[in-house]
Design brief:
It contains one helix and nine strands. The strands form two sheets. It has a seven-stranded antiparallel β-sheet with strand order 3-4-5-6-7-8-9, with no helix packed on it. The chain has a two-stranded antiparallel sheet with strand order 1-2. Strand 7 and strand 8 form a beta hairpin. With 191 residues, it is mainly beta. Helices cover 7% and strands 46% of the residues.
Amino acid sequence: KARHFSRPSSIVLRPSSPFVILIQNAHAVPDAQRSIQKLIEHFQKDGVGLVAAPSDLDIWNVDVLFEKKFSMGVPTLEGAYYEYKAGASDAVIIPGKAYLVGAAFLFPTKVGWGQFQPFYRYQSLKPDSSVLPGTPEMKKQDIGVNYIIKGPNAKISLQYSKAENYSYGFAFPSAPATKRDQFVIGAQLVY
């Protein structure tokens, strides 16, 4: 039975689960198809930016996810590298190089309805200084715990984030250098 998940890191292996390598196929997911269509529209000459000052866009990335069930629990390691190239006229895409590293560990013992999964994630975006001179590196660290009730279908999350020079909107790079602490409580329910 095929299942679609919003994020590969949402997969939870059970004791009977074999080693899993996830390859996602977006053909059956309408939202993914619309996103892919919008992305393809960007892969054209003068495909992004302002009408008066269009520019080209070139994006590529590589992602790695490892998750394996052991008797002591399920470790998860993830990493990604991104490269964005766009002209200075683009108000949405910040040209530069970014990466993400993360780790999580799902404890095997059930507590109440579910299991605890502490996690840590580090993200960085280094803007291209030739396009955006003087723009500082954006960094963000997340640490938290998920309470996994039913795999990716039901979970509760508590997360603390610490960010530097990080814009939550599109004000960057004109926004001044900032440091921001944030607490997030989340719930995911898929039915």
